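Sequence design from tokenized structure. All designs in this work follow the same two-part layout: the structure record, then the generated sequence. An example of the structure record is given first.
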């Protein structure tokens, strides 16, 4: 049962026939881990906290820098120099004290990832490097957790939901079998990123997490959504499961996460 404060706070959700009290109760029960408190994880976290997700975990070992503030809307100028997860937890708590925010001031590694996933139902990947993306994909597959994965670079974004542990659903490796060789793909500090484009993708990521939590609508499992900010275009393509996938295919060669180096 929702209390009086919740009935008022979530009134605009409660009048939605697809959400209502039942959906809001599911949202309150959900435990979501956000990996990367950056340009994607910030808007996703804000919308998920505002929506009343029960438990929200933030994983990041970085501190807030001045160049983050152009897109990382969870932080204020006074937060520069503070650990991101600490400043983020404070901001999310002040937005919605009903949400249990867990700050994980660590870098995701093969040694800690399974323990971190243990306390959560849905995972949102907003990380900025391939080592973390592949590690998280493999760990979510073995832990049977839904992974909502967003990426953004310059003016373009991608979003997909991976449930490789479910029949017919692809994982991230079905799309990209292996990480690209180090140094071949520039990161966002080299290429730049339009802040609001990251905001669009992070908000969409939060939305897909909410749909998974509330069990409403049609999610992005088996699909990939692509956004081109400069031409204001969205496109959704089918993303089939690859039977030859080394992780979720019929003859997998990846049997655990320990092929990943312990420090990524
Ligand atoms: Zn796969």
């Amino acid at each position: 049962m929702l209390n009086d404060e919740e009935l008022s706070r979530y009134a605009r959700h409660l009048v939605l026939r697809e959400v209502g009290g039942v959906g809001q109760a599911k949202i309150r029960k959900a435990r979501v881990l956000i990996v990367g408190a950056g340009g994607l994880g910030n808007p996703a976290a804000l919308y998920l906290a505002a929506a009343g997700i029960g438990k929200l975990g933030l994983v990041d070992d970085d501190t807030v820098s001045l160049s983050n503030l152009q897109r990382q809307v969870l932080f204020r100028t006074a937060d520069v120099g503070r650990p991101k997860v600490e400043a983020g937890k404070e901001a999310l708590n002040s937005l919605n004290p009903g949400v249990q925010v867990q700050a994980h001031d660590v870098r995701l590694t093969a040694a800690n990832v399974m323990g971190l996933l243990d306390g959560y139902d849905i995972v949102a990947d907003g990380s900025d490097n391939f080592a973390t993306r592949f590690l998280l994909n493999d760990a979510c597959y073995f832990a049977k957790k839904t992974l909502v994965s967003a990426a953004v670079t310059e003016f373009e974004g991608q979003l997909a939901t991976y449930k490789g542990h479910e029949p017919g659903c692809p994982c991230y490796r079905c799309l990209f079998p292996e990480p690209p060789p180090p140094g071949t793909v520039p990161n966002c500090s080299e290429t730049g990123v339009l802040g609001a484009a990251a905001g669009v993708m992070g908000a969409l990521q939060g939305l897909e997490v909410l749909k998974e939590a509330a069990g409403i609508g049609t999610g992005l499992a088996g699909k990939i959504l692509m956004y081109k900010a400069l031409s204001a275009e969205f496109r959704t393509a089918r993303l089939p499961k690859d039977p030859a996938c080394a992780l979720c295919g019929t003859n997998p060669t990846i049997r655990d996460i320990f092929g990943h180096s312990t420090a990524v």
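The first strand starts at residue 31 and ends at 35. We note this feature because it recurs in several other targets discussed in the main text.
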